[in-house]
Structure formats: structure tokens, C-alpha cells
Design goal:
The two termini are 35 Å apart. It is built from two helices and no strands. It has 63 residues and is mainly α.
């Protein structure tokens, strides 16, 4: 698993650098990096929720 907050910060830095230098490609890459980090975080969160649901169902079966 990658470090999502760090990836997001790198994307923000890349976007800002692109804006300052007028490099639209670098700016777009930064925005893409941020979107990837956000999507990765959502996938991780969904996995945790699914695990929690599984654990909750398993606990109910033991009673």
C-alpha cells in the first residue's frame, strides 16, 4: 500500500510547479496524481468497510 497523503502532497506540489512555470502538462500530471491518491484511499476505505461487515456477520453467527 502506498502512502496516500504523501502521494496527494506530491501531486499538489507538481500542480503548483506547473502553474508557476506555465507547464500545463506538469500541472495536469499533478492533478492526475492527486486523483489517483484519492481513488486509492477510497478503495482502501471500501476494503476496510467490507472487512468490518464480514467480521460483524461472523460475530453474529457465533452467538
Amino acid at each position: 500500500m502506498s502512502d496516500k497523503p504523501m502521494d496527494k502532497m506530491k501531486g499538489k506540489a507538481k500542480e503548483a510547479t506547473g502553474k508557476l512555470t506555465g507547464d500545463r502538462r506538469k500541472e495536469t500530471e499533478g492533478k492526475t496524481d492527486q486523483a489517483k491518491a484519492k481513488a486509492g484511499g477510497a478503495v482502501d476505505e471500501a476494503g476496510e468497510r467490507a472487512k468490518g461487515m464480514k467480521d460483524s456477520l461472523t460475530d453474529n453467527d457465533r452467538r
